[in-house]
Sequence to fold (395 residues):
Amino acid sequence: MAKSGQLRVGLIGTQFMGKAHSNGWSQTGHFFKSPLKVVKQAICGRNEERAKDMASTWGWNSVETDWRKLVERDDIDLIDICTPNNSHAEIAIAALKAGKHVACEKPLCMNKEEAGRMVKAARDAKNLLNTVWYNYRRVPALALAKQLVDEGRIGRVFHVRCVYLQSWIIDPNFPAVWRLDAKTAGSGAHGDLNAHIIDAARFITGDEVSEVVAHAETFIKERPSGEMAGGLSAAKGGGAKKQEMSKVTVDDAVIMLARFKSGAIGTFEATRFAQGRKNGNKIEINGEKGAIEFGFEDMNRLKFYDASQPARTQGFIDIMATDGSHPYFGAYWPAGHIIGYEHTFINQCSDIVTAIAEGKAAQMQPDFVNASKTQAVLDAALESSAKRKWISTDC
Ligand SMILES: NC(=O)c1ccc[n+]([C@@H]2O[C@H](COP(=O)([O-])OP(=O)(O)OC[C@H]3O[C@@H](n4cnc5c(N)ncnc54)[C@H](O)[C@@H]3O)[C@@H](O)[C@H]2O)c1
Fold:
């Protein structure tokens, strides 16, 4: 039963995203005028010691070790899912059935079939929030890009060019963690990184990918067994015993060509083998009247080219999206006093609280229906790579 004036959050998962979201829920009311008081009611992790440590570090009121118990608790209003991809559908559906709002990490789930079941559960739940943490939508510069495209400032879109480049598993001794196991992650760089840039492209253009052709590659096919150990670091398993090896069952890199419904064309590249790149999430969109360029490693800036300017002064302008007039930034600092990765989660927490307080929980974007379209593109790309041909997304 919702307690008036409060949003009581139960978070599942205690590592990378568990930390990012704990910070988001902690900070949102400090920067945004929050219509509901966020209560960090419970954190859930299979490792009780770690969950207790997170609770004391971030101020969670209680600890659970079984997500099913958390979902059934009547002092929780929202379930925040920060666990590996193979658990998203089961937890989200159970939480919606138990009458809880749900905020689920990306990718939405493992495949289109699970996405369909999640969408049905969200529809059946009627007025409950069902959102996915495609947090890059909440980077002020990227949200500004969407505004400019919506205002027609770049006109008809011809090209969408996206890359998401990381390098954290180039070492063949980096262990075969859950992110490299198809049964737990679904796919590799594809569902992890292409998911973000497909979502960003759909968000900024308002267009849908209709058809794709893709190639998936796994460069290192076997690695020492091990587990994630916070952020993107890992620990080898096996102690002093002989090191066990595990097969890598996901892609290390996926490249994809795409056709959009509007007739625009796009390229997407996701890899964990781009030596020299740590978190190179970049998007460029070229239209008839202008262009935009964004790179997350310089996330406070948006480059904008306006072809209506006189030829002798035409060129990309470098907008520092840190003014009160830019999306989200007014909640923070004077212009030029930049923000970072964690603020994308703080911003999304604020949007969640506002949507619920205003009775618009089910309209919060991206919802499961919206995220299922990114899932459809991901699935089509893997099918294309396996069949060596163009595949329709049915979007
Ligand atoms: N939005 C983003 O920018 C972003 C970034 C990284 C990861 N993610 C997504 O967040 C999710 C979690 O990734 P991560 O990097 O935090 O992983 P992680 O390995 O750092 O943490 C996963 C956590 O889930 C816990 N867990 C696993 N199964 C569980 C279960 N059945 N019950 C309770 N806890 C369980 C693990 O013990 C661990 O605490 C993934 O879906 C990933 O794709 C999103």
